[in-house]
Amino acid sequence: MASSQDATIVNAEHLQELLDVLGAEGFRLVGPRVRDGAIVYDDIRFVTELPVGWTDEQEAGRYQLKKRNDAAFFGYVVGPHSWKKYLFPPQTLLWKAQREGNAVRFVETPTDDAKFAFLGVRSCELHALAVQDKVFMDVDGAYRARRERLFIVAVNCGMAGRTCFCASMKTGPRATSGFDLALTEVLDDSRHYFVVEIGTPRGAEIMKNVPHAKAEASQSAEVERASQRAVSQMGRSMDAGDLKELLYRNYEHPRWDDVASRCLTCANCTLVCPTCFCSTVEDVTDLTGDHAERWRKWDSCFTMDFSHLHGGSIRGSTKARYRQWMTHKLATWWDQFGTSGCVGCGRCITWCPVGIDITAEVAAIRGSEKKDGKRND
């Protein structure tokens, strides 16, 4: 864990120099920007492209941007995008073949040598990246190569949204590991600056070329103050104790029918989730039959085709599909990967069209056990 006691200070006017240094090192810089009525992740070059002076207001099934009364660069929570789309792209060409007479020749696909630098990664998202690492690092060479080249500039949360519950999942709001640099933005009446914690030797090398000064004790303390402020604003909570056992005990709980009556099976929750990794493989060709391609594409456990085997879908009802998603996320993920699949970012709550709240569903099942005074075995 990087220590705020060893932190440095970078004035806001020098943030562009950090971006310039990363660009000069050959990184493709990706960060937050305002587009299509939301704060999304996209390629950036200049600090003026960041969501300066913007924040987001979120509630179950609702998201809107709102102007702040200051010039904060990172005064928002999280939007509909997650960083996984750069490491685990929505669609990937696996191979291509070309027919040449009576023979078939496999065409070498271009090597993906992208070298990303992510700017503005929140603590919950760092934990999401660690979850994705457990899924892909040992089985996907392209993912591993992108991940090993990745440079991460985290941003500690100084505020929380109405759908955030990272404190319950012990994934935030302060970044403690998994970053090269971590920034805490501070605005007061006289100064706008960042407290910078260095997490790796790579981060230290980058900072050599960015104007900075040693942080005073009062400035270093701003990191913890920002974290406590975000915790106090957390809009949701989830009792994560014995969560796996709770869901295993209640596989036939009537709450699954209740949530199924509201769920649209639209798959929004899985698309915005920073840890979901379901995919499908599609083979495509053209009418001439001269070439064929195999693509891996994002999919969702909410789609009928995803669980379709010979004879039909093994999860043919909304109830079965929602139960699969939530139970996998909070319970069976522990059996597979030794961790929770939920990092408490709240995206699935915000971007559900009907406002289904995973924390409320857990609370309802847990509450029924307490009311009955017994377990629903």
Strand content: 15-25%
List SSEs in N-to-C order: EHEEEEHEEEHHEHEEHEHHHHEEEEHHH
* Average residue-wise pLDDT: 93
Structural class: alpha+beta
Strand arrangement within the widest β-sheet reads 3-2-8-9-10-11-1-12
How widely separated are the two ends?
A: 42 Å
> Helical element count?
13
Largest sheet: 8 strands, mixed
Tally of DSSP β-strands: 16
Number of separate domains: 2
Principal-axis shape equals globular
What does the radius of gyration come to? 23 Å
Low-confidence stretches: none
Question: What fraction, in percent, of the residue positions are helical?
Answer: 25-40%
Q: Describe it for me?
A:
This protein has 377 residues and is α+β, with helices and mostly antiparallel strands. It folds into two domains: 4-232, no CATH class; 243-372, no CATH class. The protein is 32% helix and 24% strand. It is built from 13 helices and 16 strands. The strands form four sheets. Strands 3-2-8-9-10-11-1-12 form an eight-stranded mixed sheet, with helices on both faces. Strands 7-6-14-13 form a four-stranded antiparallel sheet, with no helix packed on it. Strand 15 (308-309) and strand 16 form a beta hairpin. Helix 8 (243-249) crosses helix 11. The longest helix has 20 residues, at 318-337. The two termini are 42 Å apart. The relative contact order is 0.16. The model has no long low-confidence stretch (mean pLDDT 93).
Describe what is shown at a glance.
The protein is α+β, with helices and mostly antiparallel strands and 377 residues long. The chain is built from 13 helices and 16 strands. A hairpin with a 2-residue loop joins strand 2 (28-35) and strand 3 (38-43).
